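Build the 3D complex.
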Amino acid sequence: MEFLRPATWAEALEAKAALPEAAPIQGGTDMMVELNFDVHRPAALLDLNRVAELTRWTAEDDGRLRVGAGVPYARLITELGDRLPGLAQAARTVGSPQIRNRGTVGGNLGAASPAGDSHPPLLAGDAVIEVESAARGVRMIPAAEFYLGVKRSALRPDELIRAFWMSPASGPQYFSKVGTRNAMVIAVCSFAIALHPDDRRVGTGIGSAAPTPRRAVAAEEFLAAELDWDARLDPGVLGRFGELVSEAASPIDDVRGTAGYRRHAVGVMARRTLTWAWNEFRSGQHGRRAG
Amino acid sequence: MRVTFTVNGRQETADDVWEGESLLYVLRERVGLPGSKNACEQGECGSCTVYLDGLPVCACLVAAGQAEGREVRTVEGLAEGDRLDPVQEAFVECGAVQCGFCTPGLVVQAHDLIERIARPSDAEIREALAGNLCRCTGYEKIIDAVRLAAARREETR
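Done.
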């Protein structure tokens, strides 16, 4: 096994091109578990800790935030919680403080586990993943096209994840997760919602209840057509939204929960998070907080 | 490979480190600092908590090579000579130590908490310690110890 320590992003891309089997390691909170338990023995570890730009985020000219793949969850919460509240809520449910000091969205994306906590808010918030290879340059992949199967993503062997792009919240965002306790627990299932009042649209993300994280597209289309943005939330609309989110899931039975439970729970979380978001939107709290 | 880093203010070099080896293994088996405990090796128990460049992390989840040139502070580095850190003292006084296996990790994590928040609420203490498992104490005495350490530390500040 080799341990590669590129000092710059260009060096990292070259290293990945020369040795596509090299496994990138940033926080190590996933990768090291596999190494410690001898589950996975990559040809090389490609340590990205020295590439300082990966740990930075910037507000870009188009208004979006570009967040380096190596920004740890703890900093997402403290530095970007006001602008990316859904993602920050999800980040607060990741592992423990020790894990949040190291773990990153880039690592979550690289692992592409259906249970990764950052995926649902990335989907709901229309995030775009910036990846790059030495040979073909930059590709911008919408989150909705990034997840291809269980722990499989659109990332090619010679590519590395550089950043994700996301607009600051234009409306309320919520994340909800079912676990057997409050901390240190992998999601049984999860759900994220983002209200986009400017477009009169609602974004969704389902976690741990399908082979990949996924949006509930029919539920989003239903709300785009049926939601009256100037009125109180109609209970019929709310109920139907929950049903459509349930139908969008295709969960399995496993040690953490049954498929039936997961299907039911994501529907409940969908109703709850829409209610929370709607109450915040209608009370004008969001505008006041953002302003 | 060779890994050189600073531990508790002293430069240390470890040779013949396997590329997949953890910082925890290097600390315990090569540097001779067995304070950080090896229990779960998957970041679930917090027994191996150390400071890495000032932030508490699970040493079992840091690749040794990632510590190259960095600063590590372990539970051994908290006391000043024979004088225990206020957190260590409070753990002893409150009976927060039983078998002691989880104690080093809890002490480091609690130390970080009261560095950041002078008088943490119970909810803040519970959240900060959520990644540290203890199978003996039932946690109440640990929480007592953190409260006491925070109060004492504030008096002497």
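The longest strand of chain B covers residues 3-7.
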